[in-house]
Each structure stands twice: as structure tokens, then as C-alpha cells.
Design brief:
- This protein has about 160 residues and is α+β, with helices and mostly antiparallel strands.
- Among the domains are: about 40 residues, no CATH class; about 45 residues, no CATH class.
- The protein is built from five helices and four strands, in the order ββααββααα.
- The strands form two sheets. The chain has a two-stranded antiparallel sheet. Strands 3-4 form a two-stranded parallel sheet.
- Strand 1 and strand 2 form a beta hairpin.
- The longest helix has 24 residues.
Length: about 160
């Protein structure tokens, strides 16, 4: 007889098990699956152990020799591959490190804005040009700037 609270009665007086509680048959298959997975894990080194005891791979060395320096000989199963470079490259920084990387993105936005303002200055009001609306309005200011610049030049030369 089941304990109270474990079994619930549904409509029609049929007993319904709570979630997660299966039959003994379900537990048996779960135990079998667990036992098989543990056996597979335990037997894996024995089955694939032959590959672990294989001979170690050969040792391969890549060297760079300069000028007329001899390439060293390998001992036993060692393989030595030599690349030959001219004697003038012996004490130089490697070419990959000598080259400066190109700047990403090009010039900064500040210089681009200044260039755009300078190009468009002719069409803006106060520019003293015949191009654009109100281009003539800057002619007086430009004449005054020129006069002050000439006066400063004269004063710097010592002229009255």
C-alpha cells in the first residue's frame, strides 16, 4: 500500500504518480544504462591503449643559417631543416618587425573637417567672394585683417 502524499487520485479514481517517479521497470533500464556507460569509460584505455604506446614522433627543427655557416647535422631520428639568408641579414631586425603597419582608417576626422571648412569657405557668408549668397559681407572684415597685418609688419621693422 502506497504512503500518503505519494499517490494522488485523479478524476475517475485512477492513481497518478507525481513527476519523476517511474516504475521499477524504468529504474532497471536506468541502472543498466549507467552500468554500460561506466564499463565503456573503464575499458576505453584498454581498447585504445595501443595508440598511446606508439613510437614518439620524430623531432623536426627549423633553423635559419646566415652566410656560409654550415647546417648542423641531426642526431638519431632528428630532422633539421635549414633556411639560408645572406650574411648582411645576420644582425638585423627581422623584416616582419621592421615594416611599420599601415594606419587603419586613414586621416583623423579633425583634419577632414578642417579641409571641408576651408574648401567651403568661399560659399559661406562673410567670405568676401562673388560665389554664394552674402559672399560680399566679409569684404570689410578681410580688408581690416589685411590692414592690421601690414601695420604689424611695419612695426616689427621699426617703421612708423
Amino acid at each position: 500500500m502506497p504512503r500518503r502524499g505519494v499517490w494522488k487520485k485523479a478524476a475517475g479514481n485512477r492513481a497518478i504518480r507525481p513527476a519523476g517517479q517511474g516504475t521499477n521497470k524504468d529504474y532497471g533500464s536506468m541502472r543498466l544504462l549507467t552500468a554500460l556507460s561506466l564499463a565503456a569509460v573503464a575499458l576505453a584505455p584498454l581498447i585504445f591503449g595501443g595508440a598511446a604506446h606508439a613510437e614518439p614522433p620524430q623531432k623536426i627543427f627549423n633553423l635559419v643559417v646566415y652566410g656560409d655557416d654550415p647546417c648542423p647535422k641531426g642526431e638519431g631520428d632528428e630532422i633539421i631543416v635549414c633556411a639560408r639568408k645572406p650574411e648582411s641579414e645576420r644582425y638585423r631586425i627581422p623584416k616582419k618587425l621592421r615594416e611599420k603597419p599601415e594606419p587603419a582608417g586613414g586621416p583623423g576626422w579633425g583634419s577632414q573637417v578642417a579641409t571641408m571648412e576651408q574648401v567651403q569657405r568661399q560659399t559661406l557668408p562673410g567670405s568676401c567672394s562673388a560665389i554664394g549668397s552674402n559672399g560680399f559681407t566679409g569684404c570689410t572684415a578681410k580688408a581690416l585683417e589685411q590692414w592690421f597685418a601690414e601695420r604689424r609688419m611695419q612695426e616689427s621693422k621699426g617703421e612708423p
